[in-house]
UniProtKB/TrEMBL annotation:
GO terms for molecular function: alcohol dehydrogenase (NAD+) activity. It comes from Candidatus Electrothrix aarhusensis. Residues 2-99 form the Fe-containing alcohol dehydrogenase-like C-terminal domain. This is Iron-containing alcohol dehydrogenase. It comes from the Bacteria. Its EC number is 1.1.1.1. Transmembrane segments: none annotated. It holds the Pfam family ADH_Fe_C. Gene3D superfamilies: Dehydroquinate synthase-like - alpha domain. It is an enzyme of class 1 (oxidoreductase). Keywords: Oxidoreductase.
Length: 105
């Protein structure tokens, strides 16, 4: 989810990268913000957060992702407070990526 939100506020994600111990000196705000993702991967691993949706051991069928995305968009508070306003296609894309690839929450 963080990867999706980076363009919504590079400045804040760059600051978060610094707070998480990343060396952002001399980097553009965009490059510094990207380090936030790496720091969160490490933090997730350190505290035992699964790396992918498949790793949750919840038997989430891949074909249910569109329905999950529709439901996610009905929870207005997180959507309204998100740095970027996601479309249904955006949420489906985030879930599909999270299903197969390492994610930073």
């Amino acid at each position: 989810m963080v990867q999706y939100n980076l363009p919504g506020n590079y400045e804040k994600f760059a600051l978060l990268a610094e707070v998480l111990g990343q060396n952002t000196e001399g980097l553009s705000r965009r490059d510094a913000a990207s380090l936030c993702v790496e720091a969160l991967y490490d933090l997730n691993a350190d505290v035992g957060i699964p790396a992918t949706l498949k790793d949750l051991d919840m038997d989430i069928p891949f074909d249910q992702i569109p329905k999950m995305a529709e439901i996610a968009l009905t929870v207005t508070r997180p959507v309204e407070n998100n740095p970027r306003q996601p479309s249904l296609a955006d949420v489906i894309g985030v879930y599909e990526r999270a299903y197969r690839h390492k994610i930073a929450l």
